[in-house]
From TrEMBL:
One of its GO terms (cellular component) is plasma membrane. It is a multi-pass membrane protein. GO terms for biological process: detection of stimulus involved in sensory perception. This is Ionotropic glutamate receptor C-terminal domain-containing protein. Belongs to the glutamate-gated ion channel (TC 1.A.10.1) family. InterPro entries: Insect_Ionotropic_Sensory_Rcpt, Iontro_rcpt_C. One of its GO terms (molecular function) is ligand-gated monoatomic ion channel activity.
């Protein structure tokens, strides 16, 4: 009878120690340090003067900014420091911090992937503000020979 109680008491004590250790480790893993992002929107970009910004040449962003009535969009277009050919072609200048790029999210992710793959670190950040949202699609003529191959994608 006493040995059974001792065994149960030992089991409960060990369970308490394991549970407390596990919850402490889990809490420490989930704790994320708070990092302040200095530029997280076009308004933040326009408000600072340390980092110049450029637009991707020939992109529809020119029209989006020019046609907008938002003051930060107008100011972004007015104070930009020129254009660049493409995010991909300017990836080294972006990583070196020569300027901030305003281009599509897919190109930015591709540049970030390249940066991480070549250096083992990511030196870039994509803002949380979405300037415009665009979904791409493909259209084919009815009974097109391309349709069958595309449907498999």
């Amino acid at each position: 009878m006493d040995s059974g109680r001792l065994l149960v008491l030992t089991w409960l004590l060990a369970s308490l120690v394991f549970m407390t250790s596990y919850s402490g480790i889990l809490t420490s893993m989930l704790t994320v340090p708070r990092i302040t992002i200095p530029i997280d929107s076009l308004a933040d970009l326009v408000a600072q003067s340390d980092l110049p910004w450029k637009l991707e040449a020939g992109a529809m962003m020119f029209n989006i900014l020019a046609d907008s009535t938002k003051p930060e969009y107008q100011e972004t277009l007015k104070r930009m420091n020129g254009t660049f050919y493409s995010c991909w072609a300017s990836r080294e200048d972006l990583v070196e911090g020569k300027f901030a790029a305003i281009c599509d999210k897919t190109s930015q992710k591709k540049v970030m992937s390249w940066d991480f793959s070549t250096t083992g670190q990511c030196h870039l950040y994509i803002t949380s503000e979405t300037i415009y949202f665009s979904q791409m699609s493909m259209a084919f003529r009815i009974n097109s020979s391309y349709l069958e191959g595309t449907d498999r994608m």
